[in-house]
Prior knowledge:
alpha/beta
Amino acid sequence: MPDDRRSLPERDRGLLWHPYAPLAGPAPYAVEAANGIRLALRAPDGRGFEAIDAMSSWWCMVHGYRNPALDRAVFDQMTRFSHVMFGGLTHEPAVQLAERLRRITPEPLQHVFLADSGSISVEVALKVAIQYQSARGLPERQNFLAFRGGYHGDTFAAMGVSDPVGGMHAEFPGQLAGNVFAPRPPAAMLTAGRLVGDDAALAEWAEEVAVLVARNASRLAGIIVEPVLQGAGGMHIYDPRCLRVLRELADAEGLLLMFDEIATGFGRTGKLFAAEWSSEPVPDSAVSAGAAGPAAAAAVVPDVLCVGKALTGGYLSLAAMLCSAEVAGVISGSRFGALMHGPTFMANPLACAAANASLELLESGDWAGRVAGIQSGLTEGLQAAASLPGVRTVRSLGAVGVVELHQPVDVPAATEAGLAQGVWLRPFRNLVYAMPPYLCSVGDTVEIAAGMVAAAGRVGGP
Length: 462
C-alpha cells in the first residue's frame, strides 16, 4: 500500500461523497473515538478535541456511543451468525423484534416488515398503499397526499412525497410521481405540557385539505405525513389536531393514513410516538371540514407506521414498516398474495439484536424523564438566542431544540462556533438545532444550548 502521510480529512476530500456536499467542499472532521455523548475529533488543521454530539449522529444514537448493553447484544449475536437471508428462513432476533414492536405500538398495527433503512421503509409503505388499493379493485389509485415542508427520504418514491420545492424535485422531474401537496399544517407551541395551536388556523387549514382530498381522492392511494414534527423539512412543530382531520378524511375516502415516525419515534418528541400528541379535542369550526368531533379522544392511529433511526440506538441501519391487520388481509387476498419487496439485508440479525437491546433500554429506563429534562434545559438555555440579531424564532419539543434564523446558515462558521463551546452541531438551511442523546445530563444540556446560542450569534448577522 503506498505511503500517504496526508491527514485523514485531506485523504477524504475529493475522494468521498458526503451528504449534500460537493466533492471539493470543506474538509470534514475526523472521528478518532466516541464514548457516551462525546466525539473525539481531529480538525482538518490537525487540532484534536472532544465535543458533545448534539446531533445524536443524525438523531439515532439515543443511548450514546459504546453503550455496554448494545455492544454486548451485537457481539453475542455475531458469535452465532451475522447474517442470513430472510427468504424462507427466520431467526430469534427478528421474531423477538417484531413481537416487541407489535406490543409497543397501537393495537391495530399487527404486522411488521423489516427494512434496510428509513427511506426503504417509506418505499415499502407506499407500495403497501398501492397494492392495497389495487387489491380493492382501484388500481388507478397510484398517488399520495403529503404535506408541504415534509421529508420522507432520498430514494425516488420517498423523495416524491417530500416537499416539492425543497425536496430535490427540480433535479429529477421526469422520475417523480404527480402527488398532491397540502399546505404546511398550522404551527403549535408547547404550553403547560400541551401542544397548543390556533383554532381558527386549524379550521381554515382543515377546509383547504378537505377540498384537496375530495378533488383528488379517485387517484390517491393514501396520505403520508410526519406526525407533529416535520424534521429535515424545517423542524416545524404543528398542531397535533391536524392528525385527527387527516384520519377522518382518509376514512371518508377509503385512503390509507401513513405516519412516518422515523425521526420522531421512540421518545424524541416527549411521547413514545409523536402521534400520541393527537389526543386533543378538535374545535367545532373544524368539524364541518371533515375533522373529528370536538370531544377529546384517544390518539390517532395510522393504518401504516414507519420507524427507524433510534430503532437500533444508531448501531446499525434498520427500519420497520407496521400495518394493520385489515390492510395486511387485503394484500394477502390479492393476486400476488404477498407484499412485493425483499431486500438482501432484510431483518439482518446483528441489526435486529441491536434493536432489541435498544428498545429494552427504553422500556426499562426513564427515557421520558430524561427527555423532559433535556426539553427543560433547551427551553431555558435557548432563551438567550431569542434576542440575537438575525434570529426569527426559538422553539423546542422533547429532545429537540431549534433556533430559526432569517437567513441561511453559514454552516462552517456555525460549526466552528459550536465546537469552540465543545458542541458538535450540523445546521442546515436557516436552522441551528440539536437533537441530543437521551443520556445528556442537565450540565450537558446547558453546554449544548450555549453552543447553539454561540453558533446562532456567529452567523445571525444584522
